[in-house]
Amino acid sequence: MNAAPLFFESHRYTSLQAGPRLIVTGAVHGNETCGTVAIRRLMAEMAAGRIVLSSGFLTLVPVANPLAYQRGQRQGDRNLNRRLIPAATPVEFEDHVANWLCPLLAEHEVLLDLHSFRGEGEAFVLVGPENNQGAIEPFTHAGAELAMAMRLGVRRMVDGWLSTYARGVARRQQSLGPGADPVAVANADARFGVGTTEYMRSTGGYAVTLECGQHQAPEAPEVAYRAILNTLIHLGMIEGDSPEVMHEMEALRIYDVIDKFHADDRFVRPWRSFDELQPGELIGIRHDGSEVRAEFGGRMIFPDSAAQAGEEWFYVTRHSDRIDRVMESQP
Asked: Hey, what domains does the chain have and what are their CATH numbers?
């Protein structure tokens, strides 16, 4: 049986009253469907008149990567959430997605990107950097982004993504040898860490990624749906009770990404996101027998035993005082 024809789909809602321009995306990775379910639920509620857009401009993208979604897998030709930039000469399917999605993102001020993860673990939110004028990811909307993140209904926040990627990419570039295969060369591109939220910030907006839980977790679509409603209410785009502000969120900062070098690199136990790491703790064994140990105490996130050689194997985080500093600065 032939696969159904592919197309790009977005749904726009415009209020008579001026307000924020919000875009909500699902299935950037095709096997992460909680956002798709939540977005389509919201569309049905709006079609029935039970939820009404009172101000602003809302765009809903239930499936950002239709090829990956059709296949029920993370990617089509490559990971859409890496090197998300328009392509003058599209080669991979995700290049075509980028040529459609990037201009769409640029039309908006705010992005809520809905994801899930492979292993077990609790939902959490990924945010961008603090305000800065640095070369990696200059940013001026950290306050608005953090206020949104603290109202999504989750108890953990993680930052430090792109700066950590810059270090990881630098290591990849150093290890490239003559005749490296195209995948290895692409993974060593300095733009490799740019996904939906990073692209959104580069256009002057702000954005968060909500990791709603494990892919098949029955509660993940509800986590995603509640986050959409909370965001709309917080931005004043729909009526509703003000969402709870999670003052006691645990804040973590990614400080390193560890790649898998060989298919036979293995973890010493089945790690889960947010498992505690003690300084010097044994995490995995390389194909050559060398040990991979925790450099500092912290927490593991995104452990991926099924990662391919040259891909991210796991990330490590440390506690951040970012939220504490924000709360202390408020009157």
From this structure: 11-246 (3.40.630.10), 253-329 (2.40.50.100)
